[in-house]
Amino acid sequence: MGTIVLVSGSPSATARPGIVVTHTETALRAAGHTVTTVRVRDLPTVALLAEDHRDPRIGAALAAVQAADGLVVISPVYRAAYSGLVKSLLDLLPSGALAGTAVLPLATGGTQGHLVALDFVLRPLLFAMGATRVLPGHFVPDRMITPEDEGGVETGTILPLAAAALTDVLISFTDSLRRPRTTHTTATLTG
Amino acid sequence: MKRTLAVVSAGLSVPSSTRLLADRLTTATVEALRERGVEVSVEVVELREHARDLADNLVTGFPNEALRHSVDTVTGADALIAVTPVFAASYSGLFKTFFDVLDKDALTAKPTLLGATAGTARHSLVLEHAMRPLFAYLRAVVAPTAVFAASEDWGGDEALADRVRRAGTDLADLVAARPPATRPDPFADPVPFETLLHGA
């Protein structure tokens, strides 16, 4: 059982990516993992956007990400890319911070057409950050998510077919946690 | 008619190489426009100063007065120069957040010049792989020349100066070939008071 950090780029408590976050938290906890969710919108955004590492809440969020066995990055697709909010937190991680961490990118978007943002924008970002174990990732179209406003709580439903697909993705993600982290050896390649 | 040029810089430090590149691109564009007989006024938007406003916009869904002014400046401008520092082979989160909150039609058909700054030349293709797709999605008319400046390019490097000049010429050609932008007048088409009273 591992420690998993979810980075949520959901813009508001009841938005669709927030429902994917809740669903993912519940499923991973049920499987026995320790789950911490970093809701980027709840961080002191001025310090975040101005890249102020000294802020204690931002420091705690970054430490949690770096200590995790697995990381799930959940972003809405805005302007055919990850949201600026998600990017602003990832910008603060030191280079190589994600080496060896299993990383699962998840995205939500208005139409199936936004699916490509996952492979063309979000995964390349994670690779550029030095992540070595990025899973294929998964896209949940907005129409598969039904938000319900219950006093600002992230509740809502993912339609059964989409929920089942997400569960499959989470199972392969947790399977990948069981594999040991890649360790660097000093062995040299010989002919 | 005098044109307007909006300059968006996402530099964080003071002084910032991002702002420096933005200023060089601005000077080159203004000169190239003057050669074409076009007078232009420049308005600079420093995104660093809008960190709180952008944060508020994400929560409330609309820009406050300070951010509204910058959003209107960019939306109503005849041309845009947008410059970001490079983080993780892409634009910064601050830069992206501004274009996330900007109306998706705000840049349609707007002549736009792109720039990026970084410590090394390693990520110079960020212009082609991250910046251009973003502005293509927003349907901006992006100048063929975009400018990347690494730390080593500063300090009398002629190659950078040439590229900046070429970029300014590209943008000036795009602006000069177009009629002046029409700025939306918020008072042109008011909702009748009677309709407001009916709660429509």
UniProtKB/TrEMBL annotation, chain A:
GO terms for biological process: alkanesulfonate catabolic process. It comes from Actinokineospora spheciospongiae. The keyword Oxidoreductase applies. Residues 4-139 form the NADPH-dependent FMN reductase-like domain. It holds the Pfam family FMN_red. Gene3D superfamilies: 3.40.50.360. This is FMN reductase. Its EC number is 1.5.1.-. It comes from the Bacteria. PANTHER family: FMN REDUCTASE (NADPH) (PTHR43408:SF1). GO terms for molecular function: FMN reductase [NAD(P)H] activity. Keywords: Flavoprotein, FMN, Oxidoreductase. The keyword Flavoprotein applies.
TrEMBL record, chain B:
Keywords: Flavoprotein, FMN, Oxidoreductase. InterPro entries: CE1759_FMN_reduct, Flavoprotein-like_sf, FMN_Rdtase-like_dom, NAD(P)H-dep_FMN_reductase. Pfam families: FMN_red (PF03358). One of its GO terms (molecular function) is oxidoreductase activity. It comes from the Bacteria. Residues 5-154 form the NADPH-dependent FMN reductase-like domain. Its EC number is 1.5.1.-. The keyword Flavoprotein applies. It is an enzyme of class 1 (oxidoreductase). This is FMN reductase.
